[in-house]
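Review the following:
>
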Amino acid sequence: MRKGYQTCNDISIWISLLEEYGFPIIITVYLLLRFEKKLSRPAIALDEMEETVRHNAK
Protein backbone atom coordinates (compact mmCIF):
# COMPACT_ATOMS: atom_id res chain seq x y z
CA MET A 1 0.00 0.00 0.00
CA ARG A 2 1.03 3.55 -0.54
CA LYS A 3 2.34 5.39 2.47
CA GLY A 4 -0.10 8.30 2.02
CA TYR A 5 -3.04 5.93 1.90
CA GLN A 6 -2.06 4.35 5.21
CA THR A 7 -1.71 7.80 6.78
CA CYS A 8 -5.22 8.79 5.66
CA ASN A 9 -6.68 5.77 7.42
CA ASP A 10 -4.95 6.38 10.76
CA ILE A 11 -7.80 7.36 13.11
CA SER A 12 -5.60 9.29 15.54
CA ILE A 13 -4.62 11.71 12.78
CA TRP A 14 -8.26 12.25 11.85
CA ILE A 15 -9.24 12.90 15.46
CA SER A 16 -6.42 15.42 15.82
CA LEU A 17 -7.46 17.19 12.61
CA LEU A 18 -11.09 17.17 13.70
CA GLU A 19 -10.23 18.87 16.98
CA GLU A 20 -8.03 21.40 15.20
CA TYR A 21 -10.09 22.32 12.13
CA GLY A 22 -13.63 21.15 12.61
CA PHE A 23 -15.94 18.58 11.13
CA PRO A 24 -16.94 20.14 7.76
CA ILE A 25 -13.38 20.82 6.67
CA ILE A 26 -12.16 17.36 7.64
CA ILE A 27 -15.03 15.66 5.80
CA THR A 28 -14.30 17.75 2.70
CA VAL A 29 -10.60 16.85 2.76
CA TYR A 30 -11.39 13.17 3.31
CA LEU A 31 -13.81 13.06 0.39
CA LEU A 32 -11.42 14.90 -1.91
CA LEU A 33 -8.63 12.46 -1.09
CA ARG A 34 -10.90 9.50 -1.51
CA PHE A 35 -12.45 10.55 -4.83
CA GLU A 36 -9.35 12.07 -6.39
CA LYS A 37 -8.58 8.91 -8.31
CA LYS A 38 -12.14 8.56 -9.54
CA LEU A 39 -12.24 12.17 -10.72
CA SER A 40 -9.15 11.76 -12.88
CA ARG A 41 -10.61 8.84 -14.86
CA PRO A 42 -13.12 10.92 -16.88
CA ALA A 43 -10.39 13.44 -17.70
CA ILE A 44 -8.18 10.66 -19.06
CA ALA A 45 -11.07 9.28 -21.10
CA LEU A 46 -11.78 12.73 -22.57
CA ASP A 47 -8.13 13.14 -23.54
CA GLU A 48 -8.19 9.77 -25.29
CA MET A 49 -11.40 10.69 -27.12
CA GLU A 50 -9.89 13.97 -28.26
CA GLU A 51 -6.86 12.13 -29.64
CA THR A 52 -9.08 9.66 -31.48
CA VAL A 53 -11.19 12.44 -33.01
CA ARG A 54 -8.10 14.32 -34.15
CA HIS A 55 -6.61 11.17 -35.65
CA ASN A 56 -9.81 10.28 -37.50
CA ALA A 57 -10.38 13.84 -38.74
CA LYS A 58 -7.12 13.83 -40.73
Q: What stands out?
A: Residues 8 and 14 are 8 Å apart (CA to CA).
